[in-house]
Amino acid sequence: MTRPAPATAAAGTGTGPPPAARRVRRSLAPYAYVAPFFTLFAAFGLFPLLYTAFVSLHRVELQTPGVMEWRGLDNYTALFSDSYFWTALRNTFTIGVLSTVPQLAMALGLAHLLNRRLRARTFFRTAVLLPYATSVAAATLVFAQLFGRDFGIVNQLLALAGIGPVDWQTGTVASQLAVSSIVVWRWTGYNALIYLAGMQSIPSELYEAAELDGASGWRQFVHVTLPGLRPTIVFTTVVSTIGATQLFGEPLLFEGSVSGGISHQYQTLGLYLYEQGWGFFHLGRAAAIAWVMFLLILILVGANAFLVRSRSRKEAVR
């Protein structure tokens, strides 16, 4: 009696999902990977942004946040007719320029020095990052003591040069210089390391070719280093511009007042927003200020991108 042959699986059959299901899964996999980010962004980024725009069109008080009275664009018109808003906008611009330009220039020079062969090079690269790691509250309080009118070290050094004491917390230019110095001290090392990383990505063959052509160190820096760092410089400029527009901690803690001095001489838009929302309890007005700051950042970043593209096109034509 012969036994029946064991059954074998038919050729071409498998235990996995059908090809159509595999194609659908393959097409949906990238969206599943990025879904957590967009979910968090929608919850903590997009929704607060849109809700702030909604609040800016209403009269909302801090004591009764659930009670909203429709005002349309009245918060914005009241904002643009407030002289303190224009003062805060002007202060934000001047402090931003006084802090961003020296900061990036010093960071570029510092990165150039750190890119050279130095002893204890790792120690110096780590040390420049210490100001960034320092608490903004601790740094500002120390600088407030340094810029004290009667017993500050800065005025004592000026006295050695024959210059009288400067009231750093009352004068408009003096107070803005003092606040800007805090920003420069905290962020120069951070930007220097970003520039250093950009310098190390420039091919060494370019420097060797420039050296063979007889280019000095300065000409190598101008014609090789700076063009190679252009994307990095654009990035740091944009980030510094955003940070300057949102400046809050340094001017707040410099004197401990949300008004930015007795005559609002260094009150930034961030302080003005805080004063309106949590000082005067006008949440609708504060939301309008937040949206003005957001639009201002978009305009500044867009202008920067336009200038970069225009310059790149001119150089491409050459």
Automatic annotation (TrEMBL):
Compartmental location: Cell membrane
Biased composition (Low complexity): 1-12
Regions annotated as coiled coil: none
Major localisation: membrane
Transmembrane segments: 31-54, 93-114, 126-147, 288-308
Membrane topology, as annotated: Multi-pass membrane protein
CDD domains: TM_PBP2
GO terms classed as biological process: transmembrane transport
Keywords noted in UniProt: Cell membrane, Membrane, Transmembrane, Transmembrane helix, Transport
InterPro entries (UniProt xref): ABC_transporter_permease, MetI-like, MetI-like_sf
Organism domain of life: Bacteria
Region entry Disordered, spans: 1-20
Annotated GO CC locations: plasma membrane
Family in the record: Belongs to the binding-protein-dependent transport system permease family.
Name of the protein in question: Lactose transport system permease protein LacF
Natural source organism: Streptomyces lavendulae subsp. lavendulae
Gene label: lacF3
